[in-house]
Design a protein that fits this description.
heterotrimer; A mainly alpha; B mainly alpha; C alpha/beta; A: Arc Repressor Mutant, subunit A; 2 domains; 2 strands; elongated; B: mainly alpha; 9 helices
């Protein structure tokens, strides 16, 4: 796993975990790897992983069982919302780069359906 | 920690001594064999001494030479450990480090002497049992002591014992003093080099260091001359002949040696704790 | 929480040349910190002063609350390339020496690290390649249970496999409360594992920042470090 060096790593770890959850690699209610396991897997600092997990706990997408570790939430609405957020984020980036190429917002959807054919 | 450091350094030193003694014995045996056994005619050479006594003599002379060599090697080795960064990183105060290193060197040297004596006794024992002539010579030598009045007046015996004890003390102090002086030269020249403005090259640095050492030796020879005006070393006393008055002076003179030795030790400890950095890597 | 390392007004001279001047630095427990600077900036000297082998400095150096040289040594583990040991020593002899000399040496952890680094015990010290030797040094350094680890340019001249193994072992075996200070003149190989960055330049510490704080400004640590060094040259 390669990280961008000019974006805070804890944000990138969060992104990585969101994706793992959305594509089903980590299922609702499933225990996620320990902090150190994640750090080793991603070759990042343990403290940084800790920070990412803390934020995800605060957001509710993860919950902690004392002494057992972190688990993925079983709250389907929250998971759905997270997925929606991620999709919106990607769409935002897409639109931005289209705009940068001089494509107006109105043209995007027709261009996209043309492309997808 | 002191004990651990002592054993680790002692082990290294003892290992080398074992190797030296091993080769000494091997070479003594080989040398004896080639000297006394005629390989051409396959018989023992006709010589005035037996091969056993000859071997004993060879062993004894190599022992004396090795004793000096090992002393010098031990001095150098001790200084090398003093500047060894791997060892200097262990949590041990500098004073304990210096003394621990010194103590393990002394112990290893004593170990060498004991080993040499044991080997000599074994060789001598073998010669005594196997060489008839040697046996009778030894027997007559020891029989002389049995005759009454051999030792002379008790007063003389005491004088001889007194001289012997002082001679041994003198030799031990001398060994320490010489080592401390070598150590002093090493420590002080390094401290001076580290203080002086930078050196352009390694060769220049080595030459400067040698120059400083020569300079220090010269200064100390002047000081020694000055001190010599009113201090007679035990060696002076031994050389001028020992009688009455000078016998009593002997102990005093040794005491003087002890003071000088301790003085150097104290100077070295100060230099070592405050100025002497271990060698940097690379 | 008490600082693992506390340096105040440190000055160090050798051969009448200032090598370190007015260094102030505090490190908290549990962090991985890079000490960055050009060759000759004083990184090694700073580490030697902290480790208690460089003498005659002025100022205060405290490791885990201990100021005396030899007491500091008990709280830190400094990589030096084992140059003090004879090259003819076998690796397991070196290990035994280490175990004997340090009571905080953890044999079990060492064996794990040793296996992880894929080292073998039969070789002699002088037969090791640069990468192997550095891995052995790291394994030995990390097998001591101390508060502060000082790694002096552990990645110089070794291949990327060995580098990855060293970085992984650092993540895997570093105690939560232990602090690691890694010096390097080249930064991008370790940026992902850093908590903080200390840049040393012109004999003193130029800046000490959190790695994530630098990235928050959309700047990579490499760019940040390079910009600090370019400022002068313009």
């Amino acid at each position: 796993m390669e990280f961008k060096d000019n974006v805070p790593i804890y944000l990138q770890i969060k992104q990585y975990l969101y994706r793992q959850i959305i594509i089903g690699k980590l299922k609702p209610g499933e225990k996620i790897p320990s902090v150190r396991e994640l750090a080793v897997k991603l070759t990042v600092n343990v403290n940084t992983v800790q920070r990412a997990l803390q934020q995800m706990n605060a957001e509710g997408i993860l919950y902690t069982k004392r002494g057992e570790g972190n688990f993925v939430t079983e709250d389907t609405t929250l998971l759905e919302q997270t997925k929606q957020n991620l999709i919106n984020e990607e769409l935002g980036k897409f639109v931005q780069s289209m705009n940068a190429l001089g494509v107006a917002d109105e043209q995007i959807s027709s261009l996209l359906s043309e492309y997808l054919k | 920690m002191f004990g651990r450091f002592f054993t680790v350094t002692l082990n290294g030193k003892v290992k080398r001594i074992n190797l030296i003694v091993f080769w000494q014995i091997i070479s003594t045996i080989l040398l004896t064999f080639f000297t006394f056994f005629d390989l051409v005619h396959l018989r023992v050479n006709d010589r005035s001494v037996s091969p056993f006594l000859g071997g004993l003599e060879i062993f004894f002379s190599t022992a004396i030479v090795l004793c000096f060599l090992l002393y010098i090697m031990t001095c150098i080795d001790t200084e090398r450990i003093n500047s060894n960064e791997s060892y200097r990183l262990i949590p041990l105060s500098d004073i304990k480090y210096y003394l621990g290193n010194l103590l393990s060197s002394v112990t290893s040297f004593l170990y060498f002497i004991v080993i040499e004596i044991i080997c000599f006794v074994i060789f001598a024992g073998a010669t005594y049992t196997l060489d008839q002539k040697f046996q009778s010579d030894v027997n007559t030598f020891f029989n002389r002591f049995d005759s009454p009045g051999f030792f002379g007046a008790p007063k003389d015996v005491r004088a001889v014992a007194w001289i012997a004890v002082n001679l041994i003390i003198f030799l031990i102090l001398l060994a320490f003093l010489i080592y401390f002086f070598i150590s002093f030269l090493n420590l002080s020249s390094r401290a001076i080099i580290d203080f002086l403005p930078g050196f352009p090259s390694k060769t220049f640095l080595t030459i400067s260091r040698l120059f400083i050492i020569v300079l220090l030796c010269w200064i100390f020879s002047k000081i020694a001359n000055f001190v010599g005006e009113f201090y007679q070393t035990p060696l002076d006393l031994f050389l001028t002949g020992l009688q009455g008055e000078s016998l009593n002076l002997l102990a005093l003179s040794n005491l003087g040696m002890l003071v000088f030795t301790l003085l150097f030790l104290a100077i070295n400890l100060v230099l070592f704790t405050n100025f002497f950095e271990p060698n940097e890597k690379r | 929480m008490e600082n693992v390392l506390e340096i105040k007004n440190l000055n160090y001279k050798k051969n009448q040349r200032t090598i370190l001047s007015e260094i102030n630095l505090s490190l908290k427990p549990g962090k991985i910190i890079a000490l960055l600077g050009e060759n000759g900036a004083g990184k090694t000297t700073l580490m030697r002063v902290i480790a208690g082998v460089a003498k005659n400095y002025r100022g205060l150096v405290n490791v885990s609350g201990e100021a005396k040289d030899f007491k500091r040594k008990a709280h830190l583990s400094f990589t030096e390339s084992l140059n003090g040991f004879s090259g003819s020593l076998k690796i397991d002899q070196v290990i035994n020496l280490y175990e004997h000399l340090y009571d905080d040496f953890d044999r079990e952890q060492f064996e794990q690290l040793f296996k992880f680094m894929r080292l073998s015990k039969n070789q002699r010290l002088s037969q090791l390649s640069k990468g192997m030797r550095e891995k052995l040094v790291i394994a030995l350094t990390f097998s001591r249970k101390v508060d502060l680890y000082l790694l002096d340019e552990p990645f110089s001249g070794i291949d990327s496999m060995a580098r990855k193994q060293i970085i992984n072992s650092l993540i895997r075996w570093k105690d939560e409360k232990a602090t690691v200070l890694i010096s390097d003149h080249f930064v991008n190989e370790i940026t992902a594992i850093l908590d903080e960055v200390v840049v040393i330049k012109n004999k003193t510490i130029l800046t000490h920042q959190s790695a994530e704080a630098i990235r928050e400004k959309n700047e990579s640590i490499e760019d940040f470090y390079e910009s600090l060094y370019q400022m002068e040259e313009e």
